[in-house]
Amino acid sequence: MAQFRTLSPEVDYQALLAQLPGQSHPRRKLAELQRKGHLIRLKKGFYVFTKEFIGREYSAQIVANLMYGPSYLSLEYALQHYRLIPERVEVFSSVTTQKNKIFETAIGRFTYSHLHPSLYPLGITINKGSDGRNFLIAKPEKALLDIFTLKFRNSSRPNVSDLEAALEDDLRVELTELKLQLDYDLLNEMRPYYKYRPWCDRLIRFLTEKL
To answer: How much is the average pLDDT of 118-142?
Structure first.
């Protein structure tokens, strides 16, 4: 079993098979690892090793990036990550260019919301996890725009009070903290992509002019 300890804690089926050259029944070996609690199946073809077996903790953020892609962490999970909302978010929420998807796994709930490809690549950053490894996540501004794109689709143009209610009452965003983290250059760079989305356009105007 020592050969598996050269792998990352997050691993796909092909990488596992590559560690079993010449094995006549590789699936049985993998099934044995699962029975012993060393390997946890998250979906068909994708697994994590336990820390007790491999000596390193898996990263739920890296799992989120790898399990269904292309994708990056965003929405409420990102707002919590940046300490912009008071609630603890139990769901690892991501956006993707693929179809909507939900995975209920032994290590948590992972959701993926479809975002139009023209908006997908904007405002993504690389963060370093507690183990020093990198994962993809929306910047604070993009996380908010992703929420407004996917959850505020009213065709009428919102006014400032509508926007403040959405931010403070619906999402419970800490506006003082948000102001400290805002990248105004990024907001202005993204503005043209949202000019036909009333809630998002109003959000960018509010963040750049009022906050």
So the answer is: 96
- 147 contacts 76 by C-beta, under 8 angstroms: yes
Between CA 148 and CA 206 the distance in angstroms is: 13
CA atoms of 158 and 179, how far apart (whole Å): 21
pTM of the model: 0.94
Given a cut of 80, whether residue 153 has pLDDT beyond it is no
CA–CA dist 64, 68 (Å, integer): 7
Distance separating alpha carbons of residues 193 and 63, to the nearest angstrom: 29
Q: In the structure, what pLDDT confidence band is assigned to residue 72 with cuts at 50, 70 and 90?
A: very high
On the 0-12 / 13-18 / 19+ scale of CB atoms within 10 A, 156 is exposed
Helices (H), the chain: 13-18, 26-35, 51-54, 60-67, 75-81, 140-151, 160-164, 175-181, 184-190, 198-209
